[in-house]
Design goal:
By secondary structure, the chain is α+β, with helices and mostly antiparallel strands. The protein is built from two helices and seven strands. The chain binds coenzyme A. The site of coenzyme A (COA) has 14 residues, from strand 3, strand 6 and helix 2.
Length: about 170
């Protein structure tokens, strides 16, 4: 039996315990006619990596509530590896923000480049499928504290935009 992941201490579970890194070799079936990965494919890998980080923190089933805008800075070419690094930035009540950094890696040289960054919000669900509170997050480093602070600002803007869009649709 392996040892379990670090559990919550008195101040909560360390943000680093949610860190999830996955690698995916970009195959022709992932790509468009230019030989680069479809944006939608990268979004799928991003959502999956983020959901694993969210579940690692919450140890509960989660659903994606929102994905903030995505800007693709550089393409991922067939034969490159897509590296997705996900970590919980902040826990609110029943929801949490996860940041995903998507990098390209040349498998032969190891050279890495930045493809895109994404912020996703997940909501934890109880056995009845209702939103349920998530345990606290312990941010340890200055970098994690900055990420948590900025996540709180993004949450305000995100919920404001959601409400504006809902009013517009109503
Ligand atoms: C996300 C979902 C569970 C929220 O349910 P709800 O009935 O609106 O619940 P609440 O209003 O109590 O909100 C629950 C939490 O979600 C957050 N939330 C709701 N909509 C959100 C959005 N668009 N962006 C970010 N957070 C959101 C709320 O802020 C709240 O977080 P908090 O407890 O940390 O403050 C519900 O809308 C849902 O099931 N959506 C579909 C999810 C799904 O199927 N995703 C896969 C893509 S198809």
């Amino acid at each position: 039996m392996g040892s379990p992941m670090p559990d919550a201490g008195p101040r909560g579970k360390p943000a680093s315990a949610s860190r999830t890194e996955i690698a995916h070799l970009v195959m022709p079936s992932d790509a468009n006619t230019l030989g680069t990965a479809f944006g939608g494919m990268v979004m799928q890998w991003t959502d999956l990596a983020a959901s694993m980080a969210a579940m690692r923190h919450a140890r509960l089933p989660v659903v994606t509530a929102s994905i903030d805008q995505l800007h693709f800075r550089a393409p991922l070419r067939i034969g490159q590896m897509a590296i997705l690094i996900a970590q919980v930035n902040a826990v609110f009540g029943t929801s949490m923000e996860v940041e995903v950094q998507v990098l390209s890696e040349d498998p032969l040289t190891g050279e890495r480049g930045r493809c895109c960054d994404a912020y996703l919000t997940f909501v934890a669900l109880d056995a009845q499928g209702r939103p349920t509170r998530v345990g606290p997050l312990h941010v340890e480093s200055a970098e994690e504290r900055r990420r948590e602070r900025e996540a709180r600002l993004r949450r305000e803007a995100r919920l404001r935009l959601r409400d504006e869009l809902a009013r517009g649709a109503g």
